[in-house]
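Throughout our pipeline, every protein is held as a single compact record rather than as scattered files. Such a record has a labelled line for the sequence and another for the backbone structure tokens. The remainder of this section carries one protein's record, kept here as part of the documentation:
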Amino acid sequence: MDSTFSDIARAMIRPGIFMLFGFVFLWVWGLDRARSWVLCIAVSSFMLAAAMVSHFLAWPGGPKPAAVFCGFLYTLSVLCACEGLLLRTGKRYGLYFDCAMLALVTGLLWIFTYASPSLWARIYIQNFGYGALLLFTSFRLAELRHGNATDRILFWILFGFSVQFFIFTSMTLGLSTPEGGKAFVASPFWGGLQLSLTVFGSGLAFAVLIAAIADMMEDLRRERDSDPLTGALNRRGLADQVRRQFRSPTSLASVIICDIDHFKSINDTFGHDAGDAVLRAFGLLLNDVVRDNDIVARIGGEEFMILLPATVEDHAAEVADRIRLQFKTTVFEFEAGKLLATASFGVAEQQPEELIETTVKRADDRLYKAKNAGRNRVFASKDSARDHNPHKA
């Protein structure tokens, strides 16, 4: 009796671990239900735990029905895990693919359980099949190798998890099947496989959990540091980025300070909703025009800043002029009528040994020169002044 209870207790440890992971992922998903990928991982964990219990209890209906049923659950678990990992990066296999794979693996398991019984065939179908699915998923997530530490760890654990299916299962090629279920369960292959699945599976689940928490923290930080109307950084976010990228004056950059012309009159004439629409469009335009490593921030009501690392003033002035030309041709339609808005720009290049704050001050001074000179123009240094007459440009 004590021995039987001890065996059951040990056998329930592994499904208990993944059941616990399932509840944790379910709780994380409950905090932010927009993260459907976390729900997929929760379902995967529950299916994996259920498959382990089904296999141990030979339920339902005895060894043969249980073999097909737990194979169905294992396959569903792997597919849910793959879909969840892909959804995190905006990718997916899709329902048709998942259903086809589930039907194919389950059908093959039924054939080699009832029509042409073969234990090794079932092992190869499942292990090589799951390994291939996970390996292909890791290939589709290859960009994670160049991500942050969490993404890199997640990728390599996923890759290792997929490869171990091939390595470990290949070692059984040519071996005879142990006679009897108890002999097979006691075989080195089965013990090693279960240990490998538990270690890699738990490691992958833990890495995914850390990634989910890290994603939530990053979103909270982004919400804290971003302007909700325009999507640009706010002053806090700007200060944080400056500390990260411009810790010393050796990281030379150019600065653009821009301001929407006559913004108060837009609010007075068309209403504050119209003003918000103009701000939103201007913020989107800035983010569309600049490079991925450039920094866009809203530093005042209608005033924005762009930091362009490793950029000379002439190029920054060209970027500013491109923004100016696109914005002045944008037509806004409101109930009170149509609107064409313009913006003014000041540009400065960071000098050697100059702090970025000093460069910002020079760009801000040039913005005011541009506005005092008639607005709708880009003002850089005297040697490369880009003074645009709105009637000519």
